[in-house]
Amino acid sequence: MPITFDQEQKLFHLQTNNFSYYFIINEIGMLQHVYFGSPLEEIHLETLLNLGMDWSKTYFSSTEQKEKIYEGNLYTTHSLFEVPTFGYADKRISPIIMETSIDHKCDFRYVSHRIYQGKPSLKGQPHFKDSKNEASSLEVTLRDLTKNVTLILTYSIFENSGVLLRNTTLINNTNQSIFLKKVSSVTLDLPKKELILTHFPGGWSFERMVRQDELSEGIKRIVSNSGRSSHEHNPFFFLSEKTSDENQGDVYAFSHVYSGSFEAEFEVNQWGQTRVNLGINEEEFSFELKPNDIFDFPEGLLAYSSRGFGHLSRQLHDIIRDHLIKIPSMELKEKIILNSWEGCYLDFNTEKILSYIDQAKLIGTELFVLDDGWFINRNDDSNGLGDWIIDEAKIDLKKIINHCHDLNMKFGIWFEPEMINPRSNLYGEHPEYSVGNLNIDRALSRHQFPLDMTNPQVVDTIFAKMTAILDHYDIDYVKWDHNRSIDCAYSSYLKERNGEFYHRMVLGYYRLAELLTKRYPHILFQGCASGGGRFDLGSLFYFPEIWTSDETDPIQRLFIQYGTSYMYPLISVGAHVSKNAITSYATKGMIALFGTYGFEFDPNTLNEKDRSELNEINEIFHNYHQKVIAEGDFYRLSSPFTSNHFAIASISKDKSLGLVLFVNLLKEPREYRFLKIEGLDQNKRYYNSFDKQIYSGDYYHKIGLNFTRWFNEFEAILVILKEVK
Ligand code: GLA
């Protein structure tokens, strides 16, 4: 069992092939963190936990009415904790805050624990799954010192993974309401400072840029407050040593399985310790738990590698593919898509779409997606959301679908389920279904309001409207959009419980997503939020791919896809070739290949050369994409953020095949340079399509391909590597 408990030392050890995680139950029943790092068999608590601050070990005993000293290595102000207190001696940022009429403190002490095979699942919320019972879990039950509030903390690990999942449940066993003010899914105390924080800020059309800041004394706080994980920040972070890089060094990752507003806090104190909390954004959060109510925190994720960012990303990609995302069928997932949006926006009719489908066939399209604009009153973006009735005067959906099928193509369609236009029929009937106080002015965005997803009736209404379409048409793919952030927060349904608004909006989204994905297990869902505004582990649980960004310029995409790759596997990264930008279709195709691959343009506008370039990339897609990119291991070779080159590689799991993409940014004169390739088997020999030679994996790794030549702006080279026996 990779989880053990040493009764004598009261020491828990969670061990995988990638890390050891140790903590103890200390002499007053707090869970005290000991170690998170490379696998370690030997622990000497006496020396390891000794902080030498004797003043911090003293306390005044209430029973004995005198000053006493904690015997063990418990320093009330500075020890490292698994569930740090609020309102006791530790003044660092607290992960959990609750208000009650008894007091406003949180101080959870050990009651019992159990170790078991398997992993808990979370009702109504996304979570990592363990359908084969491979995980091991440690569940610790704690009780607050002054109130009958129970906290159940569960840690789950998979033997071959560097990931640790953390589930927290809080139960109000008092006879009065308590109000949760802050809930962090992840909390970690590290006995180190001088750490580098890697985070992924951005905005619409430039999501998930890579930023690195050195943490120093004080608190750094990164939040999303737009009701979704957001374009501006993404809820995943890395902390690393200054010397860590792609291929070596300690790196820690943090995320949670959640799509709403979040907050991440990083505090470095004067003793050189770092605390990390990550959870629901505490602004505008006040969740009432009545007696016996239970609150499940979103699932938290911690991960560690001693082998650099690249290794940690591959660990994350593996666990997300194996235990989070559900793919209806690989056959459907690996179809080449053409989406209508950037080709015709809302301006189409049946004839136009039929011509798209015919032309799309010539470039190997296997799944045609009709984006926004197919429902009533949707000739501009100011109307129609909420109604979901086919505009029969504009399109003949049956004819379109039949035409796709005649050409052996699948058909997909766009929805934006969580939104309403005030000009829609639904709004006319139920204005109270929209978010906000109807008696005061409310901010519009793209002429729309969010629907009040906290209200089950709203979720049921939208579900019924969507099933009326999905039940009656042969649809294999749904693009699920979300085109504005949430503000003017108020639900007329929640009334006095509006402190729960933002979290309940997310739970409503999850309920609708669950109802639909369960009813249509054969449908491939693509998530989207004006591009990548809701690219997070919560959404990926329901939708195995997400539209990465509305920016489809391939050079801009290099940066977006590079940042996204730190956490999310390429199989989930929606990427299409568009009309955008000056590069050739071949270059655009190569870049989209390192995502889901597909097209997003008017196929009538292509010439013979464009078509033949795309058909060449299609061939590579069909021959290699699934094995090498969708299911393989990903390597970042050169960062466009810190160099003039973008270079990445994907290697099949059996290390027999590889694809390498190199894109030059600004024009660069001839220079003696080599592209080293990671991830191949050192002892195997590989033919490469660049210089058409055969070298060993060792040679590709240590010397690489000779790239000494003149490089023009945005010149791209795709190298195919094949094992030669
Ligand atoms: C969002 C999406 C686009 C497209 C439009 C349709 O902006 O990101 O891809 O679907 O909505 O309105």
Can you characterise this structure?
The structure is a single chain. By secondary structure, this protein is α+β, with helices and mostly antiparallel strands. It has three domains: 81-323, Beta-galactosidase, Chain A, domain 5 (Distorted Sandwich); 330-631, TIM Barrel (Alpha-Beta Barrel); 636-724, Immunoglobulin-like, CATH 2.60.40. The chain is built from 14 helices and 41 strands. Strands 8, 9, 10, 11, 13, 14, 16, 17, 21 and 22 form a ten-stranded antiparallel sheet that branches. It has a nine-stranded parallel sheet with strand order 31-30-29-28-25-24-23-33-32. The chain is globular and about 90 Å long. The model has no long low-confidence stretch (mean pLDDT 97). Residues 341, 371-372, 414, 481, 483, 528, 530-531, 547, 550 line the site of alpha-D-galactopyranose.
Percentage of residues in helical conformation: 10-25%
Total strand segments: 41
Task: Estimate what percentage of residues fall within beta strands.
Answer: 25-35%
Q: Which regions contain 5 or more consecutive residues with pLDDT less than 50? A: none
SSE topology:
Elements: E1 3-6, E2 11-15, E3 20-25, E4 31-37, H1 45-48, E5 58-61, E6 66-69, E7 96-99, E8 108-117, E9 136-144, E10 149-157, E11 163-172, E12 178-190, E13 196-199, E14 211-214, E15 218-223, E16 236-240, E17 251-256, E18 262-268, E19 274-280, E20 287-289, E21 294-296, E22 300-305, H2 308-323, H3 330-333, E23 337-339, H4 341-344, H5 350-362, E24 367-370, H6 397-406, E25 410-415, E26 419-420, H7 425-429, E27 449-450, H8 456-470, E28 477-480, H9 501-519, E29 524-527, H10 537-542, E30 545-547, H11 554-564, E31 573-574, E32 577-578, H12 585-593, E33 598-600, H13 608-630, E34 633-638, E35 645-651, E36 657-664, E37 674-675, E38 685-688, E39 694-696, H14 697-702, E40 705-706, E41 716-724
Parallel strand pairs: 23-24, 23-33, 24-25, 25-28, 28-29, 29-30, 30-31, 32-33
Antiparallel strand pairs: 1-2, 2-3, 3-4, 5-6, 7-12, 8-9, 9-10, 10-11, 11-21, 11-22, 12-19, 12-20, 13-14, 13-16, 15-18, 16-17, 17-22, 18-19, 26-27, 34-35, 35-36, 36-41, 37-40, 38-39, 38-41
Helix pairs in contact: 5-6, 8-9, 12-13
Bound molecules: alpha-D-galactopyranose.
Alpha-D-galactopyranose binds at residues 341, 371-372, 414, 481, 483, 528, 530-531, 547, 550.
